[in-house]
Amino acid sequence: MDHTVKAFDEDITQLRGLIAEMGGLAELAISEALTALVTGDEELARQVVERDKKLDELEAQVDAMAVRVLALRAPMADDLREIVAALKIGGIVERIGDYAKNIAKRIGRIEGRSTFEPLTLLPAMGEIAAEMVHDVLTAFAARDPIMAREVIERDDKVDAFYDSIFRNVVSHMVENPKTISSAAQLLFVARNIERIGDHATNVAEMVHYSATGTYPGDAEA
After folding, report:
1. Are 169 and 118 in contact (CB under 8 A)?
2. Domain 2-220: CATH superfamily, name plus number
3. Exposure string (b/e) for 75-106, b if CB count within 10 Å is 16 or more?
4. pTM greater than 0.90 (yes/no)
5. Interatomic CA distance for residues 190 and 198, integer angstroms
6. pLDDT in tens, 100-143
7. Which of 30, 78, 130, 135 is exposed most, by the fewest CB atoms within 10 A?
């Protein structure tokens, strides 16, 4: 029995390690995609796109390991929630990486970078979203439902930024019709950052469920 428990604990530790590695790569991808956006560094953007394959590989490892643990260990209650959460979080973090990759793919299509005022708002929005990703993965590692709830509350800031940027970019397009193509790329980037915030919120909900057995909305009801 002790051997089985020890083996299960080792499996959980390994799963958490894979999720942490995925989180680190996703955070790096967001950071570098935003740096490339501001500087116009297409080589850095290319590296972000290329590195996304590693995230896909890690997600496949998380999936395979979670399924194996479910089949071999037949976990109950808290342990079952932990495995299910890891399985879902792996998929969400992989999608966060995809959004960073999508941002990187737009870098070469934005012209007039130095005079494009809406561009100055995007890094601040991206920073909040990136911090949400970092903090929610810290919450997962610590099984901390309070930290998870704090991440969820921060999503409103990202949404407010998106609304502000949307209005700003649209008015810029109207006043400067020649910038419509580049402005459309910026709207796409802003939308991807907003989705990163949404996905960090989804992870936070899973962390809360894994730690407490309830979703944040259930706890308030």
Report:
1. yes
2. Phosphate transport system protein phou homolog 2; domain 2 (1.20.58.220)
3. beeebebbbbbbbbbbebbbbbbbbbbbbbbb
4. yes
5. 13
6. 999 999 999 888 776 666 677 898 999 999 999 999 999 999 99
7. 78
